[in-house]
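note to self — DONT lose this again. spent like an hour looking for the file last time. sequence + predicted structure for the chain T wanted, 319 res
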Amino acid sequence: MAEQTTIHANSLEWMKGQPSSIFDLVIADPPYNVGKDYGTTVDSIKKDEYLKFMLEWTSEAARLLKPDGTIYVFMGFRFISYLYDILENECGMSFNSWICWHYTQGQGRRRGLSARHDDILMFTKHPKNFTFNLDDIRVPQKYYRSVNNMRGANPGDVWEFSHIHYCQGNRQAHPTQKPEGLIERMVLASSSTGGNVLDPFSGSGTTLRVCQQLSRNCTGVEIHPGYVEISGTRLSQLFKGFDSIDPRMKRVPLNLCDPQIRQEYVENHKRWFLKNHESDIAEFEKEVYRLYDHVKTQKTIKPDKTKSGGNDLFAIFSQ
């Protein structure tokens, strides 16, 4: 059984006391130094101080990674270029991807363009020898074709996940809470079942919660005692599915006119793309019905009710 550990400590000091090469994956969402109020601290220090802090914690995180480990780091636009330089030239890591997290909500601006994305840098300890489970993070194809890999396509480096709104049930009292679906993709892509994950700025415990459900061991380090308490409460709650999803995961491929192929695909789709997102299955099934309710089914084909989900989807919605 995976173990989730939340540690109340200064992240940099804690990392300095740990042995090298113990984590498969680091997911870090440090303060961006833009004046956010975290209750006990405000992330607003002089530029030189912040760059020193960035170098110190990233160096420790790189040391804690196994030789085949990966790090993902969230960062705002003011320091993203500095972060890239530090990870590549100071920490000696290998660049893999510059991920753009696109969201449709955000603070508006009257003089300039409103921000609608955050940046995430993905670096690996070794340029070639690292974990990347592409099959676990594929997104549905737009069309059903025999030449397509219907297990899905590479999600690319632009990821769309909604912010966690204040009206959502899973919203915590934390100013920069990240969507679970966003973290889910990183954990699935760059670690294996039973692997060890570190979140050195664990905040409200999103990475811990995701790892708990994906059978990874996770250590979260957090300096704010209130957030440590929030994380503990969150880990004890009943799991009802992750709080966010890439909209493409609910995409129904076109050209699924053959009823037998369609029914098989629908069941595979739910297993491949909607696992841990049970609340989105009903919406997906309704979209299938909307697209294909006009397609006549072949009367000679009888659904095999001995298989999981064997009842014909269209018969269900027609009742």
